[in-house]
Design brief:
By secondary structure, the chain is mainly beta. It has a single domain (22-224), classed as Porin, CATH 2.40.160.20. It contains two helices and eight strands; from the N terminus they run αβββαβββββ. It has helices at residues 2-19, 83-88, and strands at 21-34, 47-57, 62-76, 91-106, 122-141, 145-166, 171-182, 212-224. An eight-stranded antiparallel barrel has the order 1-2-3-4-5-6-7-8. A hairpin with a 4-residue loop joins β2 (47-57) and β3 (62-76). The radius of gyration is 22 Å and the shape is elongated.
Length: 237
């Protein structure tokens, strides 16, 4: 009896995974960091981010989403909107390698089995979950030169807002801005985390506020997967 039940559950989930529509595609856009160096404007793309995305659409309202992104980021006090930072004139560069998993929620029904062409479906959406990212650990050397001394990994909370539409019966185009609140304050080298000494004396800025990084860009995905069959009762097909 137990064996039969396990077989039925496996078959049910196998059929479900085939029946659901999936998406796979690319993310391309701009990146920026809000930290103790550079501009304090939240959405201010000044570098490049590229990545891949996969979605499993459970219903027309929500989907599970997995993404991986690579971004260059930098900050320059000379381009800040803060006069004290402009006078200080620090700068830094870093790279972020991110994996993110979570749920994407559509404000309107977005049935991928009912896509008939260009702009036939449009909806705003929101995404959140958990991100894990890797970056270079930096420190301030000689008063102005920010340099790498190690590498570090930690988590971030993503929150993305976007809008998407159909391009054809298979392709979907979206545009989104996603902020990440990180669990670190040293993407810019202002608060070295790996070693207490000799970097403790090199901290600067507000060490009680963690850094943010932001990705803004386009998401192009290709959909695949069979449409669920709703057959008359008693029918084999």
């Amino acid at each position: 009896m137990k064996t039969r039940l396990i077989i039925l559950i496996v078959l049910a989930f196998s059929g479900l995974s085939i029946a659901q529509t999936h998406e796979v595609g690319l993310f391309l856009g701009g990146s920026n960091v809000v930290s103790d160096i550079g501009s304090t404007i939240l959405v201010n793309p000044n570098d490049i981010v590229i990545g891949g995305v996969y979605k499993w659409n459970k219903t027309p309202k929500y989907s599970f989403r997995l993404s991986a992104n690579y971004a260059n980021v930098h900050g320059e006090d000379s381009k800040s909107n803060n006069s004290k930072r402009i006078k200080r004139d620090y700068s830094f560069r870093n790279a972020i390698r991110e994996v993110s998993v979570g749920i994407e929620y559509n404000f309107f029904n977005f049935d991928l089995h009912d896509m008939n062409g260009l702009f036939t479906k449009v909806t705003p959406y929101i995404y959140t979950g958990l991100s894990f990212f890797h970056y270079d650990a930096l420190y301030l050397k000689g008063g102005k030169s920010v340099q790498k001394y190690n590498e570090h990994s930690t988590f971030a909370i993503p929150l993305s807002l976007g809008v998407k539409t159909t391009l054809s019966s298979r392709f979907i185009l979206g545009f989104e801005t996603g902020v990440r609140y990180t669990f670190t304050d040293d993407i810019d080298g202002s608060n070295p985390v790996r070693d207490k000494e000799p970097y403790e004396s090199l901290k600067f800025g507000n060490t009680k506020n963690n850094d943010w990084y932001v990705f803004t860009g386009f998401v192009l995905t290709y959909t695949f997967g069979k449409k669920p069959c709703v057959c008359p009762e008693g029918s084999k097909y």
